[in-house]
Structures are given as C-alpha cells and as structure tokens.
# Entry
Amino acid sequence: MSGYSIIARVERWPIAGSFTISRGSKTEAVVVVVEVGDGTFVGRGESVPYARYGESAEKTIAEIGAWEDISPETLHRDFGPGATRNALDCAFWDLRARRTGAPVYKLAGLSKPKPLIASYTISLDTPEKMARAAAEVAHRPLLKIKLGKEGDPQRIEAVRNAAPRTRLIADANEGWTDGNILENMEACRKFCVELVEQPLPADKDSILKSIEHAVPVCADESVFDSASLAGLAGKYDAVNVKLDKTGGLTEALATISLARGMGLKIMVGCMVSTSLAVAPAILAAQGADFVDLDAPLLLAADRKDGLRYEGGLVYPPSGALWGRRTSWLARASAAIRSCAERTAL
# Structure
C-alpha cells in the first residue's frame, strides 16, 4: 500500500448557454476531481475525460479504483497519458506543495508565474451569430474562433469585421478536408488569423507536408505527449499542449521542453473545465506563444476561489485553489478584507 488515501468523484458544471465545435455541442462540463491525502494534508486535481480519445468520467473513476498502490513514484509507470493520470499527477503536486509549504512552481524548478494574456473562445455558429459574439468581446486582446464546417471563410471574415483590432487564432477541430483546406487557409491569411489549430483529422493530415502553410498550423488531436512529437515533423509549426492529453503537469513540462527544442511554437490549452483543472496549466503556459486557458469563463459559475480573469489576463492561482499552502496569515488577511468590504456596504 502507498499510504495515500485517494478519493475520486464526478462533478457536472453547467456551461453558460452551450459550447459548440465541429464535433457537436454540449451544455455542461463533466469533470473528475481527485483528492489525495497523506493523513494531514490533501491535494486536489481535476481532469476532463474526453470521448474523442476513448475516455469517460466513469472509466477514469474505475481506473483509479482498480489500483491499490498509487504514488508519485508509480504514477508514470502504471498510467499512460490522458485524463486519469492528469487528475492524479496534479493532485500529487498540490499535496506536495501543501505538505512542504513550497509552491509548485518552486518544486518544479520554475520561475514565479506571472499573469498571461488568455484567448477567449467564440463557439462555432453562423457567421452572423459569431460576429455578434465577437463584437461583444472585441475589447479582448486575443480571440479564438471555432471553425470546421462549410462556410468557414465567411465566418472568419465576419469575426474579423466585428473585432478589427483583436488578434485572432482559429481551431477547426479536424473539420476541414483536402478539398477545402487551401481556401480556408487563404481566408485565415487574408483576415490576419495568426494560427490555425488542427485543420484536418489526425489520421488524414499528410497533405500538410506538401502544401504551403499560409498561416502556422498547430497540432492538437495529432499529439498527446513528448513521445508523440516526432510524428509532427514536416506537418506542423506549433503544438497545443493540454494537461488532459499529456497526463499531468509533469509530462506537460517535458513535452513543452522537447517541442521548443524541435523549433515548434507552443500553445497551452485546456478542455472545458473549472479553474481547478486550469490552475496547473498556468505554470506550463509561462513563456508560451499562445495561451488558451479560458475554460472557467465559459461556465455558468466557477468553483469557489477560482482563477482571476481581468482585462484579457488570467492570473496565477491562489493557494486556496491549488499549488501552494494557504498560511493562517493569508486566511486572516482575506477574512479582514471580507469584513471591511461588508462594512463598506
């Protein structure tokens, strides 16, 4: 036995409206939360099992329950990349931070995290509806537009006209084909889209080796962890690193390091989740070329002590959420501020 107590549960968080990509729509984020305890401290991690990768919340719970000896030392031996290992890995990092009193960034040998410019996602819809959605957030510095259906050039133009000064990136979620990729890529170039994410299905992307990339092309579904990076050679200019794909912060950092050595641009992204899942990704995203960590903004409500989003920036997590111990002084200061705010009212 490892000596750790491990509890895993499924949580459902309603999305504000719906979230639509080329594969369909959903109205809630289904996440798995793992709590790892050592008898004194408890660390938490959250993951989003994804059907595209053959995952489900129920399968993740079952995989965790099937092992009696789960520890940081055995985690990467017994679990492969994916949502199950992600929740466990992030929970063990959180536990170690709370046990030692040192924040995760120090434990991982990283610099102190800073606020990051984060994209905001416009769901796939008609050009007119996407334009209206973009106009409402045109003040944000970076928008990500979901594509992958007939009429994408019109969607790109409509969003650009609605947000003329905003930086744009696009994500087709494997929705383009050999027959329309050149037209769609040219529309991206014409309307100053800076990056196109996963335009073709992961198993049908060989044409990327032989066509001109009018804008840089980023791999998402075509890559999981550091071991799969070699398959991107000659096809992709960037890689989207998600902790739910790599299987946690540990492998995400290794994947980013190797990808940089290969000359690839780095995007750090996430699934639709709460702030608990996104918090570790903020450490991985320090220095990334593109940060796509807006998931909590898509929810009807986030969890208590969630990430702070302000002015297009996402701020590092508080100790109350993840990644460092909350001292009695910090808790007392927060209580004093809360009382002062209530008194002011």
